Amino acid sequence: MMREVEIIRLRAAPERAEAALAVLRAETERCRRDDGAAVAMALRHDCYPGDLAAVLGWDERPLPTRAGAALAETLRRFGPVEHGVWRCMDSLLPDTPITNRV
What we know:
102 residues, alpha+beta, Alpha-Beta Plaits, four-stranded antiparallel sheet, 2 helices
């Protein structure tokens, strides 16, 4: 059951935002496809195009993961990166693993 997620935030210069987003999207897809992430999302801030983030959710895996650390390291070439583990503090997530949902 996923109760924690990794959030990796990047603040890229506006002129590097598109290149950073392309890398972020490819890497989140790789985390989903090759590393088995139950959730892997690339996000872009609505007002600040250089502010990007990845959300990685895993079923039954100790966090932070090697995949998350590798993604954070890859993004550092575009600007400052924050990589942290966030715990769900309410009941918004169901008790069943994401991979078992319809």
